[in-house]
Design brief:
By secondary structure, the protein is mostly helical. It is built from 3 helices and no strands. The longest helix has 31 residues.
Amino acid sequence: MLLPLAISSALILFLVLFALFTLVITIVALVDILANEFKDNDKLIWVLVVIFLGFIGAILYFAMGQQQKLPKS
């Protein structure tokens, strides 16, 4: 059975907005990683985590990776 047009349109809108949100969060995490300095190979590791895990990698970076950044001089 087909969904009514209002429900399917709302679902499509929700999915598009969710996809945009996850894409923006991922890009913001990558920009933040590349704009800051890390010790050793932490920058490369975080870039790979965010690229391969996407939204979940970005959330992990914001939860755990922020403390690994070197202070700006």
